[in-house]
Protein backbone atom coordinates (compact mmCIF):
# COMPACT_ATOMS: atom_id res chain seq x y z
CA UNK A 1 0.00 0.00 0.00
CA UNK A 2 1.55 3.27 -1.10
CA UNK A 3 1.07 6.28 1.12
CA UNK A 4 1.52 9.91 0.39
CA UNK A 5 5.00 11.36 0.39
CA UNK A 6 5.82 14.04 2.90
CA UNK A 7 7.64 17.13 1.70
CA UNK A 8 11.12 17.66 3.13
CA UNK A 9 9.91 20.69 5.11
CA UNK A 10 7.20 18.55 6.71
CA UNK A 11 9.74 15.84 7.49
CA UNK A 12 12.00 18.29 9.33
CA UNK A 13 8.99 19.56 11.27
CA UNK A 14 7.98 16.01 12.24
CA UNK A 15 11.52 15.21 13.34
CA UNK A 16 11.40 18.27 15.61
CA UNK A 17 8.06 17.10 17.01
CA UNK A 18 9.60 13.73 17.91
CA UNK A 19 12.45 15.51 19.69
CA UNK A 20 9.96 17.54 21.71
CA UNK A 21 7.92 14.46 22.61
CA UNK A 22 11.05 12.62 23.67
CA UNK A 23 11.95 15.60 25.83
CA UNK A 24 8.58 15.20 27.52
CA UNK A 25 9.55 11.65 28.49
CA UNK A 26 7.93 9.58 25.75
CA UNK A 27 9.75 6.70 24.14
CA UNK A 28 10.77 6.81 20.49
CA UNK A 29 8.06 4.36 19.46
CA UNK A 30 5.33 6.37 21.25
CA UNK A 31 6.54 9.66 19.79
CA UNK A 32 6.81 8.24 16.28
CA UNK A 33 3.35 6.72 16.51
CA UNK A 34 1.98 10.09 17.54
CA UNK A 35 3.31 11.82 14.41
CA UNK A 36 1.90 9.03 12.25
CA UNK A 37 4.92 7.23 10.80
CA UNK A 38 6.72 3.96 11.45
CA UNK A 39 9.89 3.66 13.50
CA UNK A 40 11.79 2.58 10.40
CA UNK A 41 10.64 5.69 8.52
CA UNK A 42 11.62 7.87 11.45
CA UNK A 43 15.18 6.51 11.50
CA UNK A 44 15.48 6.81 7.72
CA UNK A 45 14.34 10.44 7.89
CA UNK A 46 16.65 11.15 10.80
CA UNK A 47 19.57 9.73 8.85
CA UNK A 48 18.79 11.91 5.81
CA UNK A 49 17.43 15.12 7.36
CA UNK A 50 18.52 15.00 11.01
CA UNK A 51 19.97 18.25 12.32
CA UNK A 52 18.96 20.32 9.29
CA UNK A 53 17.24 23.65 9.51
CA UNK A 54 14.76 24.85 6.92
CA UNK A 55 17.35 27.14 5.35
CA UNK A 56 19.81 24.30 4.99
CA UNK A 57 17.10 22.10 3.52
CA UNK A 58 16.17 24.78 0.99
CA UNK A 59 19.83 25.17 0.00
CA UNK A 60 20.20 21.38 -0.32
CA UNK A 61 17.24 21.18 -2.70
CA UNK A 62 18.63 24.08 -4.78
CA UNK A 63 22.00 22.35 -5.04
CA UNK A 64 20.39 19.04 -6.02
CA UNK A 65 18.42 20.79 -8.77
CA UNK A 66 21.53 22.56 -10.05
CA UNK A 67 23.52 19.32 -9.93
CA UNK A 68 20.83 17.54 -11.95
CA UNK A 69 20.87 20.32 -14.56
CA UNK A 70 24.66 20.22 -14.82
CA UNK A 71 24.72 16.42 -15.16
CA UNK A 72 22.22 16.66 -18.00
CA UNK A 73 24.38 19.30 -19.72
CA UNK A 74 27.53 17.18 -19.38
CA UNK A 75 25.80 14.10 -20.77
CA UNK A 76 24.48 16.10 -23.74
CA UNK A 77 27.94 17.50 -24.46
CA UNK A 78 29.53 14.06 -24.15
CA UNK A 79 27.03 12.63 -26.61
CA UNK A 80 27.71 15.49 -29.05
CA UNK A 81 31.45 14.87 -28.74
CA UNK A 82 31.02 11.17 -29.46
CA UNK A 83 28.87 11.90 -32.52
CA UNK A 84 31.41 14.40 -33.87
CA UNK A 85 34.21 11.92 -33.26
CA UNK A 86 32.39 9.24 -35.25
CA UNK A 87 31.72 11.71 -38.08
CA UNK A 88 35.36 12.86 -38.13
CA UNK A 89 36.59 9.27 -38.51
CA UNK A 90 34.16 8.69 -41.33
CA UNK A 91 32.22 5.90 -39.59
CA UNK A 92 28.75 7.05 -40.43
Automatic annotation (TrEMBL):
Pfam families per UniProt: HTH_Tnp_1
Keywords (A to Z) from UniProt: Coiled coil
InterPro entries reported in the protein's UniProt record: Homeodomain-like_sf (IPR009057), Transposase_8 (IPR002514), Transposase_8_domain (IPR052546)
Protein name: Transposase
Swiss-Prot/TrEMBL GO biological process terms: DNA transposition
Keyword Coiled coil: yes
One Gene Ontology MF term: DNA binding
Residue ranges the record marks as coiled coil: 53-80
Amino acid sequence: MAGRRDKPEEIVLKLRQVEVLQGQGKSVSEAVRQIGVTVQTYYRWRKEYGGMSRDQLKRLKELETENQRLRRAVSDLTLDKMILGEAARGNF
